UniProtKB/TrEMBL annotation:
Protein name in UniProt: ABC transporter ATP-binding protein
GO terms under biological process: L-amino acid transport
Similarity annotation: Belongs to the ABC transporter superfamily.
InterPro entries named in the record: AAA+_ATPase, ABC_transporter-like_ATP-bd, BCAA_Transport_ATP-bd_LivF, P-loop_NTPase
Domain of life: Bacteria
ABC transporter domain segment(s): 5-234
Length: 234
């Protein structure tokens, strides 16, 4: 498989505080990578830096062979990078369909449309004309993933979809994500639930204090080994 994303010696900070430190990581076309690690390990900052929502303080991000380290976020979207941010960040006064259509204005050519998103997330079809701000957490999360899909991404960066959702909503969102992955989508998925992360991903990458401490195919590691890396015991 060809490398789609190549992160090399990346640093990112919040003020003086380092959040991502000298981090290198490669994601191949068609791969599903679970990014795990304790609170504050730097996962969100890493995704945001790759998406252009946070500046890199050093190192490079290469996407499909091009150095995009300094590129504006919206120009990364048109190249095929889409972030599903922590906290969803929908337009609360727009409907589900309007949230999707706004994202679609930046779309690359591709298969995703309002209709195909509603097919992939059937729970959205009956509420497509409801205001996003009035929806449940699970419905909002599905809308947020759908919004990212509307840009026809080549790489989907998904930050903690489970956060604050009822278990049944998590199951529903993951059912759709699993189908996307089975369909060949390239995904980096931040997930606190290790078992769930390992059940959907091909590879698991664990971060600790801004660094990668484990990067291995899911089939070659036990849950206990990942837990040890998670707590810095590896
Ligand atoms: P979580 O699961 O809690 O989101 P994370 O692994 O995604 O954790 P980050 O949110 O990237 O980690 O945080 C990495 C470090 O940067 C932490 O020490 C955190 O306190 C700090 N940090 C994150 N966001 C900010 C911010 N906006 N301002 C200052 N420090 C921040």
């Amino acid at each position: 498989m060809a490398d789609l994303l190549h992160i090399s010696h990346l640093d990112a900070r919040h003020g003086l505080l380092p959040a991502v430190r000298d981090l290198s990581l490669t994601v191949s076309d068609g791969e599903a990578v679970a990014l795990v690690g304790a609170n504050g390990a730097g996962k969100s900052t890493l995704l945001r830096t790759v998406a252009g929502a946070h500046p890199a303080a050093g190192g490079t991000v290469t996407f499909d062979g091009d150095d995009i380290t300094g590129l504006a976020a919206h120009r990364r979207v048109t190249r095929g990078l889409a972030l599903v941010p922590e906290g969803r960040k929908l337009f609360p006064d727009l409907t589900v369909e309007e949230n999707l259509l706004v994202a679609g204005r930046r779309a690359r050519p591709g298969p995703w449309s309002v209709d195909t998103v509603l097919d992939a997330f059937p729970l959205l079809r009956p509420i497509r004309h409801k205001r996003a701000g009035s929806l449940s957490g699970g419905q909002q999360q599905a809308t947020s993933i759908g919004r990212a899909l509307m840009t026809n991404p080549r790489l989907l960066l998904v930050d903690e979809v489970s956060l604050g959702l009822a278990p049944v909503a998590v199951d529903s969102v993951y059912e759709s994500l699993t189908a996307l992955i089975a369909d060949g989508a390239t995904v980096v998925l931040v997930e606190q639930d290790l078992s769930r992360a390992m059940s959907v991903a091909d590879r698991v990458v664990c971060m600790l204090e801004g660094r990668v401490v484990l990067d291995t195919p899911v089939g070659e590691v036990t849950r206990d080994q990942v837990t040890d890396a998670y707590f810095g015991l590896g």
